[in-house]
DNA sequence: TGTCCACAGGAAATACGGGGGT
DNA sequence: ACCCCCGTATTTCCTGTGGACA
């Protein structure tokens, strides 16, 4: 049988027993906003994030009475639903305001990646249709002016949701001082700011003058517990998978694993997705064993993706450690040996090798990320050195090694 | 008991690179 | 286009160290 026929057969087999009916519901990135909201609605209906929703509602209730609530800060780790809950609520609030004829606008400024004050302000200006996107050539002052300009005649509520505030680098104070002190004084709108952050102490190193000016309520999003996660997962299973795809106890297991490790809903759904695709490949339902396998795969993927995106020197150091450790057949290698392996590796792939001192720091870093163990050991007359030992499954080490080599090959 | 190995790891010097101002 | 400044990466230099060995 030739390759093409094999592939066709394989594909047909998978199509014949689709376990995953709607893959998109296993990956939030692929859902359009309306679908996200629909999923969310079901989650909230299942009483998940009930306390948070109630508190946000209480905070914003004055809007409907034409009062002016203070600002709001949301704390919580990633995947605890800060963003989605807020967006969902704001949409709802907008609707209620429309029904009552209250002027209300809301804008979400998403700072998902670290960026300077300029970019953040520029993004905000774009969202408000104040100007186009600039790379530079326009002063911060000018940008602020434009923003104030478009808002000059708007007298209703303006709710500004700044997601992941701590991503504003460098002159964070300038950015916040503008939002907190200057903007409210210069525009007639009733400005309400919502800050979301995953660092509890975010505000502590902030210009005290801005801090003292900032009056706000705080709301903490706790990590999801196992019960919440079960509800969330069940909704996904219903939407994405064939009804008999999941054996008993699987959802409970995924929820238990996830709540124990992180309480992050997105990661829990990712584990479900991985389990589903494994099961589909095997042509069976998702079993407890499948979940274990999927969890292990995800765990291993963490290592390979981390090393793939790591600086090249770090990759070279790890490759050297692997080579040296293989040469020693299981016994621990010393710093000097690994350093020699490292220099050989660098010569082979044409990378400038670092001095010994810097290389030592690389090893320390690899140790921190748990790619290897390096403990300082004195061998008496034979000096002091770190004993370097790889403590990952052989198969994973091989995978990491391949990844690094591939990285160096394709780079040229 | 003293010596000395083979590094660890701190401090200071220096190179690099990007951004901002003129 | 040019320079300056500053934060970061890397190098250079240095002192310290536990224990095997004589």
Question: Outline of this structure?
Answer:
This protein has 412 residues and is of the alpha/beta class.
Features:
single chain, about 400 residues, alpha/beta, three-stranded antiparallel beta sheet, DNA-binding
Folded structure, characterized:
The chain is 56% helix and 12% strand. The protein is of the alpha/beta class and 412 residues long. It starts with a helix and ends with a helix. The model has no long low-confidence stretch (mean pLDDT 83). It binds a DNA duplex (22 and 22 nucleotides) through residues 116, 136, 334-336, 354-358, 360-361, 364, 376-386.
Detail the topology: elements first, then pairings:
Blueprint: H1 3-16, H2 33-45, H3 50-64, E1 71-76, H4 82-100, E2 104-110, H5 117-127, H6 140-150, E3 157-163, H7 172-186, E4 190-197, H8 208-213, E5 216-221, H9 226-240, H10 250-261, H11 265-282, H12 288-309, H13 312-327, E6 333-334, H14 335-349, H15 356-368, E7 373-378, E8 384-389, H16 394-410
Parallel strand pairs: 1-4, 1-5, 2-3, 3-4
Antiparallel strand pairs: 6-8, 7-8
Helix pairs in contact: 3-4, 5-6, 9-10, 9-11, 10-11, 11-12, 12-16, 13-14, 13-15, 13-16
The chain binds a DNA duplex (22 and 22 nucleotides) through residues 116, 136, 334-336, 354-358, 360-361, 364, 376-386.
- Biggest sheet descriptor: 5 strands, parallel
- Tally of individual helices: 16
Strand composition percent: 5-15%
Task: Report the oligomer.
Answer: single chain
Uncertain ranges:
none
If you compute it from the alpha carbons, what radius of gyration comes out, rounded to the nearest whole angstrom?
27 Å
Overall mean confidence score, pLDDT: 83
């Amino acid at each position: 049988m030739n390759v093409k026929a094999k592939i066709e057969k394989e594909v047909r087999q998978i199509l014949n027993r689709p376990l995953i009916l709607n893959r998109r519901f296993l990956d939030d990135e692929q859902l359009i906003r309306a679908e996200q909201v629909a999923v969310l609605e079901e989650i909230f209906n299942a009483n998940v994030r009930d306390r948070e929703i109630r508190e946000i509602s209480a905070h914003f209730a004055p809007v409907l009475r034409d009062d002016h609530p203070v600002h709001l800060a949301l704390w919580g780790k990633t995947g605890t639903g800060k963003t989605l809950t807020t967006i969902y609520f704001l949409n709802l609030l907008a609707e209620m305001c429309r029904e009552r004829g209250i002027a209300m606008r809301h804008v979400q400024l998403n700072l998902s990646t670290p960026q300077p004050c300029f970019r953040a302000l520029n993004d905000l200006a774009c969202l408000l249709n104040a100007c186009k996107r600039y790379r530079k050539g326009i002063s911060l002052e000018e940008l602020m002016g434009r923003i104030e300009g478009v808002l000059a005649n708007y007298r209703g509520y303006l709710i500004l949701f700044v997601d992941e505030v701590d991503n504003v680098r460098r002159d964070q104070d300038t950015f916040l001082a503008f939002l907190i002190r200057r903007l409210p004084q210069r525009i007639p709108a009733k400005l309400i700011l919502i800050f979301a952050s995953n660092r509890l102490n975010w505000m502590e190193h902030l210009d005290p003058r801005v801090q003292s000016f900032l009056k706000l309520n705080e709301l903490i999003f706790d990590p999801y517990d196992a019960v919440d996660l079960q509800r969330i997962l069940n909704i996904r299973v219903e939407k994405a998978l064939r009804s008999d795809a999941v054996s008993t106890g699987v959802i409970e297991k995924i929820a238990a694993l996830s709540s124990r490790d992180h309480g992050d809903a997105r990661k829990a759904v990712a584990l479900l997705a991985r389990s589903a695709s494994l099961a589909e490949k095997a042509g069976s339902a998702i079993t407890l064993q499948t979940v274990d396998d999927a969890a292990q795969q995800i765990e291993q993927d963490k290592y390979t993706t981390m090393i793939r995106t790591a600086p090249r020197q770090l990759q070279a150091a790890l490759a050297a450690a692997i080579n040296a450790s293989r040469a020693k057949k299981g016994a621990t290698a010393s710093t000097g040996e690994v350093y020699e392996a490292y220099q050989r590796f660098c010569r082979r792939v044409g990378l400038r090798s670092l001095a010994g001192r810097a290389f030592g720091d690389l090893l320390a870093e690899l140790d921190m990320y748990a790619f290897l163990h390096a403990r300082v050991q004195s061998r008496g007359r034979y000096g002091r050195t770190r004993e370097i030992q790889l403590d990952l499954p052989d198969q994973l080490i091989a995978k990491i090694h391949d990844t690094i080599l591939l990285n160096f090959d394709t780079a040229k």
